[in-house]
Amino acid sequence: MKPLRVGIDARLVDGLSGGVQQVVIGLANALSKLEDGDEEYLFLVHPDASDWIRPYLRRPCSILNGPESSGPKRWKTALKSMSPKAWTAIGDAAALLLPWTIDPPDSTGHVEAAGIDVMHFTVQSAFRTALPNIYQPHDLQHVHLPHLFTRRARRWRERNYRTFCDQATLVSVMSEWGRQDMIQRYGLSPEKICIVPWAPLLDTYPPCGLSDLTTLRRTLELPDAFIFYPAQTWKHKNHLGLIEALRILRDQDRLVIPLVSSGHRNDHTRDIERVLKRTSMEDQVRLIGFVAPQQLVGLYKLARAMVFPSFFEGWGLPILEAFQAGTPVACSDVTCLPQMAGDAALIFDPSRPEMIAEAVKSLWTDGDLRNRLIERGRIRAAAFSWDRSARLFRAHYRRIAGRPLSERDRDLLAAPATV
After folding, report:
1. Which helix (H) or strand (E) is 184 found in, with range?
2. How many domains would you assign to the chain?
3. Per the confidence metrics, is the pTM higher than 0.90?
């Protein structure tokens, strides 16, 4: 029997896909280390847009360049260099620069010609194909928070998500909360949904030693102590709620706590900057944009705490990253986040800045609390690994392709969800 050939969708532009890009890196790195199977994994990329994934690929993983029409260089360059002001001016018309329309695209035949047996769509923008496939919609945020999306974006999500969920052999989510949401909102049968949790991957990135930390602090002009929030400036990430919490602490408690926030800057960045100017907090809050993997590792190490005030998440990867890095955490009480965090983080209502402020103050001033949360966080992070996630995905690849399952495959498929 010929090796099972799995296509993995990695059609991403470096720096624009947030946690999804990190997830694909984690999966690639873990699949590359599996030596007890005969599978081949082909990572489908846009031409000239694979530098971000190549360092993590070793046999049995390799690159499959997609057709040039799937990722013209002009839109990749335009998207990556576009300013927040340009995003705001373009509005819905920004969709015209993207490689999709409202209608779900058909396969170009490229992956079929490459001999792919199973397709894994790791991103929401899949394509129609007759191949057995796994689809990851990540979350249904547009259903829960429709006001945060343009009409065109909602139409695109609904049309594409439902098409690809219907087409999929399996729909993959990260938690039991996500599974129940897909059942209730999209009417999917429970048997069609698999739960594969993501894991932190800071130890996959280049290490950040003492000299690197010194360089990082100097290069980014970081304060001596700060809280950290790694998130693109989407509205649902609730940067404004965190900033209001810091204002409360400054004005009511005379406690000035610096905030450093990394992540791609989009159209909402201008709103955040206006608030910072109005509240005279430009020097207290730093929006440093997208950072390289090694810099991300260093920021977790240098931060006194990581605060995650998001209104909605399909999976809060920064929480596990902070646990792995030994950084104490406070996070929202929404979606799957409380189950992810367990007893290893302070939990707050993200709609109440005064509760965010209370959690931030506790982390900032209570060293014993930080130490307890760091210890609990390390234990919690150990429950998640990319090796297990990759092996679980591999078991699903084998199952939907009709290939024999090992005893370990069957154990993984039968095991209860971690979250």
Report:
1. helix 176-186
2. 2
3. no
